[in-house]
Amino acid sequence: MDLRSAFASTFLLALVLWMPLPALASSKLYIVYMGEKKHDDPSKVTASHHDVLTSILGSKDEALKSIVYSYKHGFSGFAAMLTESQAEELSNFPEVLYVKPDTHYEAQTTRSWDFLGLNNDQPSGLLQRARQGEDVIVGVVDSGIWPESRSFDDRGYGPVPARWRGACQTGAAFNASGCNRKIIGVRWYTGGVDAEALQAAGEFMSARDMGGHGTHVASTIAGSPVRNASFGGLAAGVARGGAPRARLAVYKACWGPRTRCGGAAILAAIDDATNDGVDVLSLSLGGFQEFAGTLHAVARGIPVVFSGMNDGPAPQTVRNTAPWVVTVAATMMDRSFPTVMQLGNNERLVGQSHYFDAAANTSQFRMLVNGRRCDNTRLLASLNASGNVVLCYAPEDAAFNPPRQRVGDAIDNVQRAGGMGVIFAGYSSNLVDFTDRCSGIMPCVVVDYEIANRIAFYMATTRTPVVRISPAKSVVGDSVLSPRVASFSARGPSAEFPGILKPDIGAPGVSILAAVRDSYQFMSGTSMACPHVSAIIALLKSIHPDWSPAMIKSAIITTGMSSTHTAKNNWFVTHIFNFASYSASMNDGFGMPIQAEGVPRKLADPFDIGGGHIDPDRAADPGLVYDIDPSEYTKFFTCTLRPRDECLSFMGKLYQLNLPSISVPDLKGSVTVSRTVTNVGPAEATYRVTVEAPAGVDVSVEPEELAFTVDGSSNATFTVTFTARQKVQGVYTFGSLEWSDGGDHSVRIPIAVRTVTEEFVADV
């Protein structure tokens, strides 16, 4: 979800929108999963669902009233309104694999694509080779779309691809003309929501996007180029998607001001998208647990991309961690918005904001008031905040009340007290989007505690402290340290599956400018990082249509930004922080290790950013890939449903899945892991291995050289043996394994290992 929307609505309204319908007060929505389809004909699959419900409810009429969604394309299952006892009875049917109550989830640009190197300046680059994603169909499951946005202009597009089987579902303020050769189909799903309450909140009972989240995501993926886009003059340039010639299929499963999404509706959207003919599925949603739909989509060759959640920098917060999906972390790009604050003593200090009110009299000084926490409107009024600029500076609160949870309320409180400006102090540098709510009203600036302390000192030593705040400026390029992992980006290890290393990859997700209704606005979150990866996958699908989702995922992870390894020889940098040299091979544009915003800021490791920062052009030509048979995914999924004896060994050794990463969470003595790579580069090639061993672990690889010939197999298997140097209940340390052909191809996978003496010991 984007960060601002998470704080935008009241809790009470959210409760009203998602209360059970009055007529079904004794029932609630349940998801029933029945596994693989028994029929190819969707109508027969749906009929079987009616039969099962009829046997529970007593009549066909009651079954038809109860069922909300029938999942009939990618798999078999349904969502229905049931009482608890009916759900329990249904779970005992032999053909039913599980019955779960429906769960709700929250939905988690001009510069970013140039920053990633996807531009028209490279004739042989991925964007040109993929013909800008021409005719690739990207399915977006989100909050809908605003079809009138200039980003969805279809001029110059040919006919809709003949393979498309979707529909243009009309509704309130969305007729058939809302679809075109760019937005080739829309569907919307209201099962389990109170339509009257949603409409009262301003929601459209159609695919039209109320809050802008879905429109922002869709335009980031495939928006047509729009010149002179900006946010009040900031970040001015050409707004476009990463795959600007791709087609969009929109599935609205998220509703209301908080962009809440029902699990049953998301499953229905995935099921329809699988049948409609999408090539890629993008879901900027948080914590989705209904693995079935995404598994069946991937098994049918459709890559699925998820946001990794916004609960960082705390560890073990990453979600959407199934091994078959791509889970995306959010990073910062090479753009900032410095805002000059001149104090009455002529000292000039710089913060960050999106303040653009050009009509304001920037030569005017205003009184400075210390609002401390800025959490009490009455206190602010008593401090004479009206008409003045308020400093919100409470470093003592940082430990128990993070700035991200306070900044929105602080700004609102100052506005209610009549303030004419806010200077908010926090340790996170990813708060700037919150200042958008001040645009056109007053300047709101984010600073760190050092700058705030200087302002506070000036105020304490001056009888009449004043400040003048100038509009922000857009600064891009080498003067901005980038990329960096955003502080809010959720971190590994996966609490659900520690043997699967997540997140997979990092992509821009901070202050992304993209379409919202008829304008262009900034949003931040892993929701904004996810569509960047979705667009790149669309381009990869265009030039490698025969690659499986696992191969595409591997290409992205193994080619993450690693550049020239210029910091590898700096023993102090790479070891003093106990990163076992991993960060040294994951460098930014300056050849320095990528940093992760947090408390405190540190060098990034695989639990921050997976394989590194996405590098689109290198992903198009990875050399080797780690493919995987979907049946292995199915075995994993089956074991999560109904653990059997054979599952104990399998689930305890998830590091044996042929993934482009290795995570060993329970190394006691020695463990040997097997991997198979497929050569997708030159037929004649020899690769040699380089290992950066995690601290405290010995690593050996057999063989150390892989040779491919024209007449030989394109697959090669190797083993990696990890041996703990000492018996200790340790912490995760990191490393990498890289195959290189000595030329253009370096295929690197991240490694995370934790030594243990006892199983299931809490790391607290």
UniProtKB/TrEMBL annotation:
<feature type="active site" description="Charge relay system">
    <location>
        <position position="527"/>
    </location>
</feature>
<dbReference type="InterPro" id="IPR036852">
    <property type="entry name" value="Peptidase_S8/S53_dom_sf"/>
</dbReference>
<dbReference type="InterPro" id="IPR015500">
    <property type="entry name" value="Peptidase_S8_subtilisin-rel"/>
</dbReference>
<dbReference type="InterPro" id="IPR041469">
    <property type="entry name" value="Subtilisin-like_FN3"/>
</dbReference>
<dbReference type="GO" id="GO:0006508">
    <property type="term" value="P:proteolysis"/>
</dbReference>
<dbReference type="InterPro" id="IPR022398">
    <property type="entry name" value="Peptidase_S8_His-AS"/>
</dbReference>
<keyword id="KW-0645">Protease</keyword>
<dbReference type="Pfam" id="PF05922">
    <property type="entry name" value="Inhibitor_I9"/>
</dbReference>
<dbReference type="InterPro" id="IPR010259">
    <property type="entry name" value="S8pro/Inhibitor_I9"/>
</dbReference>
<dbReference type="GO" id="GO:0004252">
    <property type="term" value="F:serine-type endopeptidase activity"/>
</dbReference>
<keyword id="KW-0732">Signal</keyword>
<dbReference type="InterPro" id="IPR045051">
    <property type="entry name" value="SBT"/>
</dbReference>
<dbReference type="InterPro" id="IPR034197">
    <property type="entry name" value="Peptidases_S8_3"/>
</dbReference>
<feature type="active site" description="Charge relay system">
    <location>
        <position position="142"/>
    </location>
</feature>
<dbReference type="InterPro" id="IPR037045">
    <property type="entry name" value="S8pro/Inhibitor_I9_sf"/>
</dbReference>
<keyword id="KW-0720">Serine protease</keyword>
<dbReference type="Pfam" id="PF00082">
    <property type="entry name" value="Peptidase_S8"/>
</dbReference>
<feature type="domain" description="Subtilisin-like protease fibronectin type-III">
    <location>
        <begin position="656"/>
        <end position="753"/>
    </location>
</feature>
<feature type="active site" description="Charge relay system">
    <location>
        <position position="213"/>
    </location>
</feature>
<protein>
    <recommendedName>
        <fullName>Subtilisin-like protease fibronectin type-III domain-containing protein</fullName>
    </recommendedName>
</protein>
<feature type="signal peptide">
    <location>
        <begin position="1"/>
        <end position="25"/>
    </location>
</feature>
<dbReference type="InterPro" id="IPR023828">
    <property type="entry name" value="Peptidase_S8_Ser-AS"/>
</dbReference>
<dbReference type="Pfam" id="PF17766">
    <property type="entry name" value="fn3_6"/>
</dbReference>
<feature type="domain" description="Inhibitor I9">
    <location>
        <begin position="30"/>
        <end position="107"/>
    </location>
</feature>
<comment type="similarity">
    <text>Belongs to the peptidase S8 family.</text>
</comment>
<keyword id="KW-0378">Hydrolase</keyword>
<dbReference type="InterPro" id="IPR000209">
    <property type="entry name" value="Peptidase_S8/S53_dom"/>
</dbReference>
<feature type="domain" description="Peptidase S8/S53">
    <location>
        <begin position="133"/>
        <end position="560"/>
    </location>
</feature>
